[in-house]
Amino acid sequence: MSEDLILASGSAIRAQVLSGAAVPFRVIKSSVDEEAIKRANPMMEPAKIAALLGAAKACDVSRDYPGALVLGADQTMELDGELLDKLPQRDLARDRLMSMRGKAHYLHSGLCLAREGEPVWQNAQTSTLHVRDFTPRFLDYYLENAGDELTASVGAYAYEGLGAQLFERVDGDFFAILGMPLNPLLEALRGFGIVEP
User: Fold this and answer.
1) Quick check: 1 pLDDT over 50?
2) Nearest 5°: phi and psi at 76?
3) CA atoms of 66 and 58, how far apart (whole Å)
4) Number of Cβ within a 10 Å radius of residue 95
5) Contact present, 101 and 131 (Cβ < 8 Å)
6) DSSP helix/strand/coil, 7
7) What are phi and psi of 158, to 5 degrees?
8) Which of 19, 61, 134, 190 is spaced 20 to 30 Å from 39 by Cα?
9) Which of 142, 78, 131 is nearest to 102 (CA)?
10) Which residues form the catalytic set?
11) Residues near 49 by Cβ (< 8 Å), separated by ≥ 6?
């Protein structure tokens, strides 16, 4: 394949998903200020923020790499109609998890492929995750063992790890929950000559 694909993200799980699917790529992290974009769009729905951030990252990196196809991705979490951010410190995780207990929340994934600073393909998916009514004992166990998951993701969990035990059910694609909706992306990458058709 002759195309050059750049992942404009430092996310280890996104890189792992692409590598697992044998997609050739290199990583060049975007310098987009995500918080500035959120502040500039306070009334925008969380799903649209995810799409906007993914596109901003892809376009940002693609301006500096002419000819390359650049993949930008982002994910937002919505609980009770509010856009939530990652926790700045571990000791806030108990309150966040208790606010999620027994409720559904939404993960919105936004993907964008850009070239020369312009989007050439976009995809958005929303997954619904139903947190079980876990016991205080489980919460103590989880907080003791979750490690970096508590501050690495907005929900204080990694769905592909111990965090899976928080849920009674999920409605959505596994890869979309990880922040990289893979099937529509692979279809697009086939069209752009990144992977074999």
Assistant:
1) no
2) -120, 155
3) 12
4) 11
5) yes
6) strand
7) -115, 110
8) 61
9) 131
10) 74
11) 37, 38, 41, 74, 76, 83, 108, 110
Q: Is the pLDDT of residue 158 over 60?
A: yes
Q: Interior CA angle at 154 toward 151 and 155, to 5°?
A: 95
Distances (CA, A) of 162 to 14, 119, 124, 157: 18, 36, 26, 8
What pTM was estimated for this model as a whole? Answer: 0.93
pLDDT of 85 reads 87
Of the pLDDT bands very low, low, confident and very high (cuts 50, 70, 90), residue 2 is: very low
Q: What is the pLDDT of residues 64-82, one digit of tens each?
A: 999 999 999 999 999 999 9
What single DSSP character describes residue 39? Answer: H
Computed over every residue of the chain, the mean pLDDT equals 94
Q: Which long-range contacts (CB under 8 A, 24 or more apart) does 183-190 make?
A: 184/111, 184/123, 184/125, 185/71, 185/111, 185/123, 186/21, 186/23, 188/113, 188/121, 188/123, 189/5, 189/23
Instruction: Kindly list the domain boundaries of the chain, sorted by start residue.
Output: 5-191
Angle among Cα 177, 182, 186 to the nearest 5 degrees reads 170
**DSSP summary character for residue 40:** H
